[in-house]
HhH-GPD family protein (Chlorobium phaeobacteroides), 298 residues
Amino acid sequence: MKKAITPNVVSSAELEYYRRPVVQKDVDIELFHQKILGFHKDNRRSFPWRETTDRYAIMVSEIMLQQTQADRVTEKYQAWMRRFPDIRTLADASLRDVLALWSGLGYNSRGQRLQNCAREIEDRFNGVVPSLPTELKTLPGIGDYTCRSIPVFADNLDVAAVDTNIRRIIIHEFALPEDISKSQIQAVAEQLLPIGRSRLWHNALMDYGALFLTSRNTGIRPLTKQSKFEGSKRWYRGRLLKELVARDCVFVEEIHEKYGSCPWGLQEILDDLLREGLVEEADWSNRQGGRVLRIRAR
DNA sequence: ATCCGGAACG
DNA sequence: CGTTCAGGAT
C-alpha cells in the first residue's frame, strides 16, 4: 500500500493554510503564487512549443497534448510543424498525410479535427486562428480546456485553463473533495490566476503537477478512465485505420478475412469510421467485385 | 456515462 | 500488467 504524501511537507502553519476550503484573501493567494513559481524557477521542463507564441503552433501543440504525455509529443510536434507549417498548408493537405503524421499519438480523430479546424479557419476566420476562447470553442476538437489554453500560451491571456494537472493540484493543495464539479474547480482556478502572468503561471502549475504533485504521489485519480486496450474494439479500430492509411484502398471482404477474429462487430467499426468521415467508399466501388474502402480523399 | 489510442512508466 | 496522460464529442 503506497502512502499518499500529505500537504504538510513544509510546516504545520502551511498545513493549516492548505486546509482552508477556498482561499479568498490576497495574502494567501500570494503565498501560493510564491510556492508554485518558486518551484518552477528551479524545475522547468523544456518544450519546443514553449519557444513560440504563434497561435497556430500553439493550437497544434495543445491538440496533440490532449490526453498525451508532453514528453511523447515533442518529436511529433516538430515533424508536424515541418510538414504543415501554417494553416493554409494543413487545410490543403490530404487526410491521409494528416493521419500518417498523427500515427503513434492515438485518438486519430484529433488529427482529423485539427485539419478541420484549419479548413474552418480558412473559411470563417480569414485564415487567422481566432484569439478568443468563445470563438475557438466553436471549432472541432476544441473544448473547455483547449479554448482557454491556446490564448493563454499564445497571447498570455488572463483566463484559467484547467487540465488534469491543475485540477489535481487544486484538489490536493486546498483539500477539496475529488468529486468536486468542473465549474467549482474552474472558479477556484480563476481566483488563483496571477493577472499578467498567465502563460508563466500555467506552465509553472503544469510542471509542478507533472514533476512533483503527481497522481501517484497524491492518490488523486484523473477524471478519465480507460478500459483495457489490448484486443479491444479501439485496438482493432486503430489497426484497421493504420492499414487504410498505409494502402490506397482495401476490399471490405479482405478486411473481414484479415480481422475475422475481431470479437466486436467489424461492421460497426467500419460504420463508425464512415460516419465520422475518416473513411469513405471509393466511387468506383462495387464495379470491382465488392465494396472498396479508403481514407477519405476530401 | 461512454466512447475515442497508444506509448511509457513503476 | 495496471495506470496515466496539457480532453472532447456524443
The mean pLDDT of chain A is 92. Residues 67-69, 71-72, 104-110, 216, 226-227, 229, 233-235, 237-238, 272, 276 of chain A lie near DNA strand B (CB under 10 Å from a C1'). The radius of gyration of chain A is 22 Å. The longest helix of chain A spans residues 26-42.
